[in-house]
Amino acid sequence: MQIEAEAPLTGAREVGAAGVELEGVDAAYGAVAALRGVTLSVARGEIVAVVGPSGCGKSTLLELVCGLIEPAAGRVRADPAALMPQRDALLPWLSAVDNAGLALRVAGASRAAARAAAREHFAAFGLEGFERARPAALSGGMRQRVAFLRTLLAGRPVLCLDEPFGALDALTRLQMQRWLAGALAREPRTVLLVTHDVEEAVLLADRVVLLSARPGRIIEILDVELPRPRARGDRAVVELREHALRSLGETEA
Amino acid sequence: MTAAIGLLALLGGWEALVRLGGVDPLLLPAPTQILEALWEDRALLAPDLWTTTYEVLLGLAAAIVAGAALAVAMHLSPALRRALRPLVIGSQAVPVPVIAPLVILVLGFGLAPKLLLVALVCFFPITINLYDGLRAADPDARKLLRSLQAGRWQALRLVEAPAALPAAFTGLKVAAAVAVIGAVFAEWAGAERGLGHALLTANGQLESARAFAATLLLFLLAIALYGACALLERHVVDWVPAGTRGRP
């Protein structure tokens, strides 16, 4: 799997530099404060998960990084980022292959060129034979893979994944987590993964950011220095998960 | 099936009522008398049917072009939206039978006034449904396009316009059903041909059966137009499950 990025992961820029940097960021929707004083630095090639209760401003964080909104205070600097919205946002009238190639169409490629580029990855994504299927004819897991491929094909060095598996059943979710870990191992990117599932965060990320309820503040940042692949039953995984849940104050709930 | 039985019962009752002398056939001819008139006056009515069909199709086409342009303009520009919305809504309060003679006076007896009046009746459902449809696009898909730095035009072409199609077809079907009304009023106000004209002359000559035959043709014309739009919709909007199609 080779997907060209618009900006190289390393190279001209200094190695180990931050792919995403937030400094004392406040964000608000009208009168509602969504984030308060968030400072976070994500190294290039690092996978950082953001966990917190619903409505804590997790999605707002991604919108800031993707440049969709401006911070009310503080500074945001990020390499070009591609967003995978919470619900897959596949366009129901487009085939799977046209949905996957959408970013290329927007960038000016012809329909045929976008299709050809997207089709190349269908086998690796387990989507072979479904090129012409509409989203309504795909399973939940397949829809997420199409949406993820669309995000990758945007060719941005940073991926912002907003609850990518939130709508899936437990079993599919597990398979997709394993699949995403594999895909990111083959194709390293700077990843911001928003989830409400602490376990998912610990299984996939290098670091886990715990956010408080709205307005979201960073409670704690956990380092997950565990070898991959990780399994849910691993003692270290379980311990980190319990630690995170205690920090979030969910264990008493 | 039940609809067919109901229709047959209705027609049977109607026929019996007239034949048994319940109603004067001058006021209400029997269904068989209407069919008879339709057949006997076919040489008279066929050109009228063609004329009205022609007026309705052209008027509808004009309404689609004008309505789509208006809806897109209102969608893209808040200033235009504020300026045009009252006019669009107000256009529906215009009493077509009353202004039809004025339009004829200004535009003459040709095709132009018919086209204008058909378009006037049709463009409101087209404009409003398309406008609502354009705004109904999935917010996540919009957000996605913005994150890809898509331009306003790309967002319209790739997301908003396709998302608006089901609603647009709802508007088109409503327009197709009412288009005939505009043509008839226009013909009443001044025409030498057309089903509206035929209706008027048949009434004047106390040829009730022929008047009803002309009405039957108008009825069938509206149904055929609606059916054509529904058929087109099924081909174009082929991603919406059949059960929910047509609901904006």
Tell me about this structure:
The complex is a heterodimer of chains A (253) and B (248). With 253 residues, chain A is of the alpha/beta class. Chain A has eight helices and nine strands. In chain A, the strands form two sheets. Chain A has a six-stranded mixed sheet with strand order 5-6-7-3-8-9, with helices on both faces. By secondary structure, chain B is mostly helical. Helices cover 80% and strands 0% of the residues of chain B. The radius of gyration of chain B is 22 Å and the shape is elongated. The mean pLDDT of chain B is 90. At the A-B interface, strand 5 and helix 3 of A face helix 7 and helix 8 of B.
Give a quick summary of the entry.
With 253 residues, chain A is an alpha/beta fold.
Q: Helical residue percent of chain B?
A: over 70%
Give the beta-strand count of chain B. Answer: 0
Distance between the termini of chain B: 28 Å
Number of helices of chain B: 10
Biggest sheet overview of chain A: 6 strands, mixed
Radius of gyration of chain B, taken over Cα atoms and rounded to an integer in Å? 22 Å
Mean pLDDT of chain B: 90
How much beta of chain A, percentage-wise?
15-25%
Give the topology, please.
The complex is a heterodimer of chains A (253) and B (248).
Chain A (H helix, E strand, L loop, with lengths): L17 E12 L2 E12 L3 E5 L6 H8 L7 E6 L2 E4 L11 H5 L1 H5 L4 H9 L20 H14 L4 E5 L7 H17 L3 E6 L2 H7 L2 E5 L6 E6 L11 H14 L5
Parallel strand pairs in A: 3-7, 3-8, 5-6, 6-7
Antiparallel strand pairs in A: 1-2, 1-4, 8-9
Chain B lengths: L1 H18 L11 H10 L1 H35 L1 H13 L5 H12 L3 H25 L3 H9 L4 H38 L5 H10 L3 H29 L12
Helix pairs in contact in B: 2-10, 3-4, 3-6, 3-8, 3-9, 5-6, 5-8, 6-8, 7-8, 8-9, 8-10, 9-10
